[in-house]
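Amino Acid Chain and Its Fold in Token Form
===========================================
Structure side: the spatial fold of the chain, written down as a series of whole-number tokens.
Position: the record begins directly beneath this header, with no further notes in between.
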Amino acid sequence: MNLFKRSSTRRTASLLFATLALGSTLTACVTNSETGNPDGWQEIKPAPVPEIQAMVPEAIRKKGTISIGSNPPFAPMEFKDSDGAIIGIDVDLARAAASVMGLELVVQEQDFNLILPSISGGTVDFGASGFTDNEERRKNYDFVNYLSAGLQWAQPTGEHVDPDNACGLTVAVQKGTVSETDDVALRSEECVKQGKDPIKMLSYESSDQAFTALVLGRADAVSADSPITAFAIARADGKLEKTGEIFDAADYGWPVPKGSDLGPALQAALQHLIDTGDYAKALEPWGVTEGLKDTATLNGK
């Protein structure tokens, strides 16, 4: 199976994840109605580290700012708050890394397909928009890896759904995602081959609708991307929990120009955040406690 966002563009069949924001009648089910940073969130702005500052390319160091290209919505990685500002894990980590490098972060909203060309053209310094690091992209860009993500099922709290034994169950997914096309669909086909009942799949336009269906009892489980699942569970008032392990994992990475000194500088800044605990502190309020990196890597190394 292929993890979502491994294709060359983000919002192809496997990439459509909307911001988890429910209508007012459903806010008791999966709560993201605050349209802002989650409870317990705090801005992480560590002091600059001189030896890491010295690693930053001179042109960026002289500006005093570093810019990212980002494309919301893709909660909790990036989405807009009620004031229209882009927030989320990518922004929090990028801002913290910038602070370690002695820089202020500038966030530029862009079409996802334009972020990599903008990096090549110098319009932005790097991308922070849930990019999956893969061999094809590495031909032209280096990637600072900051999170491992995969597919993760969720179930109502206290139930016992086994993703590997889901024949005959009803599973909600977001339409057009890998959860629909490669995960649940293939599992259902296998059920039929074994002479068992197929999985009934409920496909919704957005992930929040899929999780709401689960809370309301219309589905037995949800299959979604692991950060999306974690984010929904954190806002479900204890009604949902994870079931099964994360699978089809791959690294998210910040793309920078191939061979640029910015890659090692960002890697060092991220490693500093990991070593000080600021990295985990930044992710925890978003409900992401799995897939964290022990070591900041560049192109997986």
Q: What stands out?
A: The radius of gyration is 19 Å. The mean pLDDT is 88. The longest helix spans residues 178-193. The CA atoms of residues 69 and 158 lie 41 Å apart.
